[in-house]
């Protein structure tokens, strides 16, 4: 059945303006959708009963036949288009969707369809030649980097999609590093081979240089740009040519036959050379293969069977010693079927990945909740990846993070916005669960509390310690996603006070889905503050509150999240003497603060105790003191921004025996504010890494503008006919940048912006900021 959104007339699908004056933390290259809605081209999303049957018939495929794969790349590289083609060729959709028409399966949120970008990652399940592929389409926009990271944790392998005319772009580097961190084997797909200026050689060179990896060329293109019509499989030396059939050019039909010297002598020689290079490269990385090549086939590599080479490529890919490279054009329907074959052939099954924690669970359930969606009728739907044990509907599970038992009522296989109910979920597989009310993104799910404790004890024995307390269970949490600190914030208000509760509920649901969204209460004004990763992020949240929760909210102006730190060491003392009822609360304390030197910005203060204090301090009081210090650091004394990079020493603390812990915290907190003020406050501003891709003609205009923005250019690289300016620039100077850059470069330039660090404002900038904040200018 078509979803309502798919039936929207074009007037409702028009792109809302994404180019407001302060559109600073966003790519300029967000697509403008076609303005005519082709009614005749409406898509048939229903899939036939046979397709459903085929999915149902193998509800739990053998683990070796499962591939949990992510697609990652820079914005606009073509991830969604590639995913759409995969679903089409595997038979799960009947017609091809197009991001430019807003009717793809994986971009299923209304905002995604309208704006033509991927915001939430959607997990999609389909089968390809007896393999079950759970595929996650991840967003490319930097505002949603956390979405990518969250998904990477549950993937066993990834396809990195590149625009073959641009090579490695800024966001590719970021996601590549994230994939390195999670040790995920990858293959590269050079997409857009049909584009003007597409260059296979350039893109491969850029992968080699920028990603510092060893590309294994498994294919060579036949033609480039307008002449691109197929590829040669370097391993089998077969050519694959897509020929449009009379009525449809959907890429389903292609001709696959051995490449003969008579077909094209030059190409034949190129493929011959590429195969020999590939064999040498793989032999260098894999001893078993080297032995085979040097033995039986040293005289003639031509005799080496394709399957031996494929097995060796698989081993080096799994060991992350090299990365297979394929090419094609998703939009022109070329190269996607060989890419699917490569996913099954070269990327790992779940049981080929090693997870240390599995040994502690043995056959007990261990699963990770990696995404939460809110469904109006069914409540929260939680995406789960099972690592060990199995899940069944109508069963109780224990959430280690929340220390609570919950019930799963149903299990569903996700197909974008449609789902198939399943009776069980086995290790290595991914599904949607209905019924979990407390679980949030990143939570570890096990079968029971007893099972968590047993696993903790096994883990304790392994590390040479008996762990008995249930708090040790924490050590069994699967690695958490580091949530980056938001750089933008604004106030959000409901239309009336009566709607405040509804707004609070909506925000808490959205936070469960998206840990990078922070919601705070301004202690002075009582207003709700929304903190996000970029303007687009906040704009989308605003939009979702309206559409999904029916609340029309008002956003205050977007502001930059500065930080505060101290310039010098200082000491302060404080006394709290308060009688509440018949109890006298009396505390005196002395604290010392010092600037912390180090590379990594830390918002959490490092806390030490003088020896005289630690000797007499009851353990339970330590929590109250540390709460007081940490809370005080949330709002710095100058402008109320978080304080970073400080060391605190508790020099003394005395108290009346009746004093409550809350009073101790309050006294310590007030004393720290005094010490911070004495130490001299330095305001820090977010410094961004900026990468502008601009044509030679407009380079000087872009550079002149950058100079006005306190930007410092670090490097100017060449990318085909374009120049790539790599610069550092304060976020405060980037307000309205997309509009300015567009007019300076006639809309031809694109840019990405990413938080690099926090840098100190000079004294003039700091006092100007202070005056602005106090409303004096
Ligand atoms: N010429 C050409 N254009 C393509 C190709 N693949 C995708 N595109 C176009 O590139 C644009 C971006 O495609 P998407 O599939 O949305 O890219 P994406 O990587 O999913 O983008 P985000 O979700 O926003 O990160 C669209 O206009 C596509 O039509 C291709 O093979 N060749």
From TrEMBL:
NCBIfam families: small_GTP (TIGR00231)
One Pfam family cited in the UniProt record for this chain: EFG_III
Reactions mediated catalytically: GTP + H2O = GDP + phosphate + H(+)
Protein's UniProt keywords contain Nucleus: no
Described function: Mitochondrial GTPase that mediates the disassembly of ribosomes from messenger RNA at the termination of mitochondrial protein biosynthesis. Acts in collaboration with MRRF. GTP hydrolysis follows the ribosome disassembly and probably occurs on the ribosome large subunit. Not involved in the GTP-dependent ribosomal translocation step during translation elongation.
Family: Belongs to the TRAFAC class translation factor GTPase superfamily. Classic translation factor GTPase family. EF-G/EF-2 subfamily.
This protein's GO CC annotations: mitochondrial matrix
GN (gene name): GFM2
Domain Tr-type G: 64-351
Protein name: Ribosome-releasing factor 2, mitochondrial
Alphabetical UniProt keywords: GTP-binding, Hydrolase, Mitochondrion, Nucleotide-binding, Protein biosynthesis
Stored SUPFAM superfamilies: EF-G C-terminal domain-like (SSF54980), P-loop containing nucleoside triphosphate hydrolases (SSF52540), Ribosomal protein S5 domain 2-like (SSF54211), Translation proteins (SSF50447)
Keyword set includes Lipid metabolism: no
Source taxon at top rank: Eukaryota
GO molecular function, one term: GTPase activity
Organism: Anser cygnoides
Localization of this protein: Mitochondrion
CDD domains per record: EF-G (cd01886), EFG_III (cd16262), EFG_mtEFG_C (cd03713), mtEFG2_II_like (cd04092), mtEFG2_like_IV (cd01693)
Chain sites annotated for binding GTP: 73-80, 137-141, 191-194
Gene Ontology biological process terms in this record: mitochondrial translation; ribosome disassembly
UniProt cross-references to Gene3D superfamilies, sorted A to Z: 3.30.230.10, 3.30.70.240, Elongation Factor G (Translational Gtpase), domain 3, P-loop containing nucleotide triphosphate hydrolases, Translation factors
